[in-house]
Design goal:
The protein is mostly helical. It is about 65% helix and about 0% strand. It is built from 8 helices and no strands. The chain has helices spanning about 15-40, 40-60, 70-85, 110-120, 125-135, 140-145, 150-170, 170-175. The longest helix has 23 residues, at about 15-40. It is globular.
């Protein structure tokens, strides 16, 4: 997807307009995916900004514009996973406080319960569930985004769903998990 040439970017680069259009069209969707991964709007914003910066720096080397969404989603996902690996070594610890919710949000109680349940999953299980059931990706597309086998996607999804069902209790156990889009 990325070619080897390394053009330099600077103010007024020829691809700025093209990237700005892409940013305007996709930033909200990428931020929503990041939120589903991390459960915190502020952290989701940081993940999205970091991923879009990486995408901007790689923009002139991207050879296949037809698969930008998949590539951008992969950058968000890998940024999230890398941050979680680094966070194990940080001194600060996360709390069980509910995630920040935007003031103008119309989040239902059920959505908050599911978001809290997602937060207890291991990062890779959470990533698999978000990509499979909220982004509506196939097993193969999810495996490609995560850089793993389809068997790993299936096992991580099964374990994640079992953990979610145990965490959510009998009220949610009968509700099928479907995409959020």
């Amino acid at each position: 997807m990325i070619s080897r040439s390394r053009p330099t970017s600077g103010p007024g680069s020829p691809w700025d307009g093209e990237f700005a259009r892409y940013f305007g069209e996709r930033a909200h969707s990428l931020r929503s995916t990041a939120f589903l991964l991390c459960g915190d709007w502020h952290r989701a914003e940081d993940l999205t900004q970091a991923a879009l910066l990486k995408l901007y720096l790689a923009w002139p080397r991207l050879s296949r514009r037809d698969s930008l969404d998949a590539y951008a989603r992969k950058v968000v996902l890998r940024t999230f996973l890398a941050e979680n690996r680094r966070s194990r070594w940080k001194r600060e610890r996360l709390t069980d406080d509910p995630p920040d919710v935007p003031a103008a949000s119309s989040v239902t109680d059920d959505e908050l319960v599911v978001q809290r349940a997602l937060a207890v999953l291991a990062p890779r299980q959470r990533a698999v569930l978000v990509l499979r059931y909220f982004e509506d990706l196939s097993v193969e597309e999810t495996a490609a985004a995560l850089g793993c086998s389809t068997g790993t996607v299936k096992s991580q999804a099964a374990r994640g769903l079992a953990t979610l069902r145990a965490k959510l209790g009998p009220h949610f156990a009968a509700v099928p998990i479907t995409g959020g889009r």
